[in-house]
Structure formats: C-alpha cells, structure tokens
Amino acid sequence: MIKFIEDQINDSIELKKMLLSDDLLGCVKMAAELIILAYKGGGKVLFCGNGGSAADAQHLAAELVGRFKRERKALPAMALHANTSALTAIANDYDYSDVFVRQIEAFGRPGDVLVGLSTSGKSANVLKALDYAKKKGLKTIGFTGRKADTMSSLCDVLLSVPSEDTPRIQEVHMLWGHIICGLVEDGLFNERK
C-alpha cells in the first residue's frame, strides 16, 4: 500500500511540474483576466460540469460568491447543475445535452463568462453550453485534459492538463481554479503588481 501511495503522490508531483510551461501559465493568467474584466463590467461567472467536474464547478462558484482568501464583497457566480429541479426538468422535457444551454439562455448575458469543465473534453452538454455561450456573446473558458480537440474551438481560453488520467486532471483543475480565484480577488480588490 505504501508503494501505491508513493506512486500516486509522485505522479501528481511530476504532472504539476509540467504546469510550469509558459503556455500553460499564460492560459491561467488569461482566464483570470477574462473573469476580472467580466466582473469589472458588471457581469457574472457561470460554471458547468458533470460528476466530479460538477463538484469542482460548484466549489469554484462558492469560492467567488463567498470568499477565497480575503474579506471582500460577494462576486456573482453560479454552478448550473446546482438547481436539481431545473436540471431534471430540462433533461426530462428536452434532452440531457440541453441542461446547461437552457440555463445559459435564462441567466447568461453578453460580457458574462462561462467556465466549462470536462476531464475528457467530450461531455456533450458542456460542449453544447460552450458553443451556445460563445454565440450568445459570453466569454468561454474550458478546463479539460490532454484530448481537447473539440473544446479548443469553443473556448476563448482553454486550460488543458497534459494528462489523460482523470484523478490527476481533476487535481490540476482545482489547483488552477484556486489560482484563478486568488488572481481574481487580487485583481478586483488589491491590484497585484
């Protein structure tokens, strides 16, 4: 068991070292800048994902609405899967691939940001949401793994983890999400030089 534990930790460390590339650092910075601009313009951030990515989406929305590291005013953010009545009604009356699109139609406005999380990059409802949001004038940020072919054309900023291992991808998504939350707080409430 100890060997398994060590291997998992070492795999995580090695992947995180790969995140220090200039391209990936620049993408994280651009994602934070898009969110800061949306908030400065009176917009909000919408999140969507399935399964573990839904949990991550809800976690990040909570960091923005509540607080991340500093006392500050609440920032408007919501995870689109959190209203289970809307989610199940839309899935039942339309199609599961529409559960996020219908809510973006209701709540999304030009200048808002949609953050779509999909470890595989193939979640039909997330892809459809990113496509719809982009056409509606929202900025789009995608969090995914190595296979990001479909998501790349739908995102203004794509954060693609250089891995195909779902647990490692999810760990990085939360790391990047927390970094972005910190940058957003600093950018809005205490300019980082």
Automatic annotation (TrEMBL):
<dbReference type="InterPro" id="IPR046348">
    <property type="entry name" value="SIS_dom_sf"/>
</dbReference>
<dbReference type="GO" id="GO:0005975">
    <property type="term" value="P:carbohydrate metabolic process"/>
</dbReference>
<feature type="binding site">
    <location>
        <position position="63"/>
    </location>
    <ligand>
        <name>substrate</name>
    </ligand>
</feature>
<dbReference type="InterPro" id="IPR050099">
    <property type="entry name" value="SIS_GmhA/DiaA_subfam"/>
</dbReference>
<dbReference type="GO" id="GO:2001061">
    <property type="term" value="P:D-glycero-D-manno-heptose 7-phosphate biosynthetic process"/>
</dbReference>
<dbReference type="InterPro" id="IPR004515">
    <property type="entry name" value="Phosphoheptose_Isoase"/>
</dbReference>
<comment type="similarity">
    <text>Belongs to the SIS family. GmhA subfamily.</text>
</comment>
<keyword id="KW-0413">Isomerase</keyword>
<feature type="binding site">
    <location>
        <position position="63"/>
    </location>
    <ligand>
        <name>Zn(2+)</name>
    </ligand>
</feature>
<dbReference type="GO" id="GO:0097367">
    <property type="term" value="F:carbohydrate derivative binding"/>
</dbReference>
<feature type="binding site">
    <location>
        <position position="170"/>
    </location>
    <ligand>
        <name>substrate</name>
    </ligand>
</feature>
<dbReference type="Pfam" id="PF13580">
    <property type="entry name" value="SIS_2"/>
</dbReference>
<keyword id="KW-0862">Zinc</keyword>
<feature type="binding site">
    <location>
        <position position="59"/>
    </location>
    <ligand>
        <name>Zn(2+)</name>
    </ligand>
</feature>
<feature type="binding site">
    <location>
        <position position="178"/>
    </location>
    <ligand>
        <name>Zn(2+)</name>
    </ligand>
</feature>
<dbReference type="GO" id="GO:0008968">
    <property type="term" value="F:D-sedoheptulose 7-phosphate isomerase activity"/>
</dbReference>
<dbReference type="InterPro" id="IPR001347">
    <property type="entry name" value="SIS_dom"/>
</dbReference>
<feature type="binding site">
    <location>
        <begin position="50"/>
        <end position="52"/>
    </location>
    <ligand>
        <name>substrate</name>
    </ligand>
</feature>
<comment type="pathway">
    <text>Carbohydrate biosynthesis; D-glycero-D-manno-heptose 7-phosphate biosynthesis; D-glycero-alpha-D-manno-heptose 7-phosphate and D-glycero-beta-D-manno-heptose 7-phosphate from sedoheptulose 7-phosphate: step 1/1.</text>
</comment>
<dbReference type="GO" id="GO:0008270">
    <property type="term" value="F:zinc ion binding"/>
</dbReference>
<feature type="binding site">
    <location>
        <position position="170"/>
    </location>
    <ligand>
        <name>Zn(2+)</name>
    </ligand>
</feature>
<protein>
    <recommendedName>
        <fullName>Phosphoheptose isomerase</fullName>
        <ecNumber>5.3.1.28</ecNumber>
    </recommendedName>
</protein>
<dbReference type="GO" id="GO:0005737">
    <property type="term" value="C:cytoplasm"/>
</dbReference>
<dbReference type="InterPro" id="IPR035461">
    <property type="entry name" value="GmhA/DiaA"/>
</dbReference>
<keyword id="KW-0963">Cytoplasm</keyword>
<feature type="binding site">
    <location>
        <begin position="118"/>
        <end position="120"/>
    </location>
    <ligand>
        <name>substrate</name>
    </ligand>
</feature>
<keyword id="KW-0119">Carbohydrate metabolism</keyword>
<comment type="function">
    <text>Catalyzes the isomerization of sedoheptulose 7-phosphate in D-glycero-D-manno-heptose 7-phosphate.</text>
</comment>
<feature type="binding site">
    <location>
        <position position="123"/>
    </location>
    <ligand>
        <name>substrate</name>
    </ligand>
</feature>
<keyword id="KW-0479">Metal-binding</keyword>
<feature type="domain" description="SIS">
    <location>
        <begin position="35"/>
        <end position="193"/>
    </location>
</feature>
<feature type="binding site">
    <location>
        <begin position="92"/>
        <end position="93"/>
    </location>
    <ligand>
        <name>substrate</name>
    </ligand>
</feature>
